[in-house]
Structures are given as C-alpha cells and as structure tokens.
C-alpha cells in the first residue's frame, strides 16, 4: 500500500503496546488506518479520533458507526479495498482536509465519554429489568 501512495509516505504498524504512551503515538501520526476484518467496537477508533486524527476503517469495525464518511473519518466496505484506502490516504496529504477531518473527529469523540457509556448502560439495565419483571411466569 505504501508503494502505491508514494512520495515519502511512511507506514508504521503498531501490533502490540508500544513502550511510550499512546497519546505520543497518536501525536506522531497524520492518519489512523485501521483495516480490520472484525471488531465489535475498536476503542482505538475513538482514541485516534480524540487525538484529532482522521480515521480510515472498515464497515467490520463497529466503531465505524460513529464516523460520517468524508466528515469525521472514512469507512471502506472491506479490508481488501486497498485501492480506495490508498486514494483516501493520498487525499489526506492535503493538510487543510486532514485538519478539518481531524477536528470533526475530535469533536465526535468528545461526545463518546465514559460518563455517557455508563449512563447508557445503566438505562439499558433498568429497561431490561422492567421487561423481565413484566414477563409472565
């Protein structure tokens, strides 16, 4: 893929926790490419977005549901869509586009707080509890 993008583009693959803090890893990047085969909701999606990175991922990442293609990130249908990913990475060489997408990503990630997650989880538990208590024996 890197050969297809060309022009000095570097790809860094992080396949295990680095020895430095993840915010430092995200800060060193321009784009976060996550061509997953399957992830119910990869936390790295929101982490990269929170760091202000444009994210490119697949529909197989549940985290893609928080992305609006071309607004706060990009979603491709499958991890085999290499040509499309190359085109997206190439388009993000434009610093104003990269900054715009990254800013929108950061704003979106900010709305997905731990507090929101806990409230939604508790509401679901309460709702399901009412459903169970109304279930005929």
Describe the structure concisely.
The chain is mainly alpha-helical. Helices cover about 45% and strands about 5% of the residues.
Query: How big is the Rg?
Result: 18 Å
What value does the average pLDDT take?
90
Largest sheet: 3 strands, parallel
Order of helices and strands: HHEHEEHHH
Structural class: mainly alpha
Query: Can you say what the CATH homologous superfamily is?
Result: Glycogen Phosphorylase B
Number of domains: 1
Looking at the structure, the CATH topology is: Rossmann fold
**What CATH first level would be assigned?**
Alpha Beta
Number of helices: 6
Task: Tell me roughly what share of residues is in helical segments.
Answer: 40-55%
Low-confidence stretches: none
Strand content: 5-15%
Shape: elongated
Widest sheet: strand order? 1-2-3
Task: Report what the structure shows.
The structure is a single chain. The chain has helices spanning about 1-5, 20-25, 45-50, 80-90, 95-110, 115-135; strands spanning about 30-35, 55-60, 75. The chain is mostly helical and about 140 residues long. The protein has one domain (about 1-110): 3-Layer(aba) Sandwich (Rossmann fold), CATH 3.40.50. It has a 3-stranded parallel beta sheet, with helices on both faces. Strand 1, helix 3 and strand 2 form a beta-alpha-beta unit. The radius of gyration is 18 Å and the shape is elongated.
Keywords:
single chain, 137 residues, Rossmann fold, three-stranded parallel beta sheet, 6 helices
